Amino acid sequence: MRSRLHDIKLGSLGGWSRVLAACVGIGALTGCIIIDGGYDDQPPVIIDDNPPTTIEPMLVNIDSDMELAAKPGDGVGIFVEYYTGGRYRIWTTCDTNFSGSVCPFEIYTSVDTASTISAVVEENLEGYDSVTINQGQGAVDLYFETGSDSDAVEINVTPGAILRLEAFVDSLSQPHFIYWFGNGVLHEGAPTNPVDFNPTKP
């Protein structure tokens, strides 16, 4: 799982004059130290002394050549399709028609080490939407701001490649918005985040 560093305004080291508090989670093995420089315009700095738990991605089947359908603007969704010959299509929708807001999606994808990415094709991207490709690592990172339309990419890969996908909406882990067809069933929500997709036909 990729780590995130949120914007934190740090004061000078000389301003960190005292340790105000140490906190330990009740009934858990978590803890933190809060350091405050005493300035009203600066937030306390929280140092987590326990690393986050690593989630083991679950491998799920994705049926080849099954197209998904959803009306843009009517609901939040991250849709994953696979087509024989080695083509993943990932697209997003938001509930903008009801909420009046856009959905900021961060989607991180990578293929298994035996596979490669040969091309990435963008669909309907505009504004702040972006695609970052690292062919050497077999990874494609997506940032979409989806409104009443849909945003999509096609990722051409080695036929039968396993695709790992990790999804965030508004910077929060949101596997329950991931949709795909697997074993003849429409799946609404992934069991883990990230999740690994295994095509039924290469």
Q: What is the count of helical runs?
A: 1
Name given to the CATH architecture of the largest domain: Sandwich
Estimate the strand proportion.
over 45%
User: What is the SS-derived class?
Assistant: mainly beta
Q: Which CATH top level class of the largest domain fits?
A: Mainly Beta
Rg estimate, integer Å: 20 Å
Helix content: under 10%
Total tally of structural domains:
2
Annotated CATH homologous superfamily of the largest domain:
Mu homology domain, subdomain B
Total strand count, please?
16
Following the backbone from N to C, one meets helices and strands in this order, namely EEEEEEHEEEEEEEEEE
| Mean pLDDT reading | 82
Low-confidence stretches: 1-39
The CATH topology of the largest domain turns out to be: Immunoglobulin-like
List the helices and strands and how they pair.
Layout: E1 18-24, E2 31-36, E3 45-48, E4 58-62, E5 77-83, E6 87-93, H1 96-99, E7 103-111, E8 117-123, E9 130-134, E10 139-146, E11 151-157, E12 163-169, E13 172-173, E14 178-182, E15 185-188, E16 195-199
Parallel strand pairs: 4-16, 5-14
Antiparallel strand pairs: 1-2, 2-3, 5-6, 6-11, 7-10, 7-12, 8-11, 9-10, 12-13, 12-16, 14-15
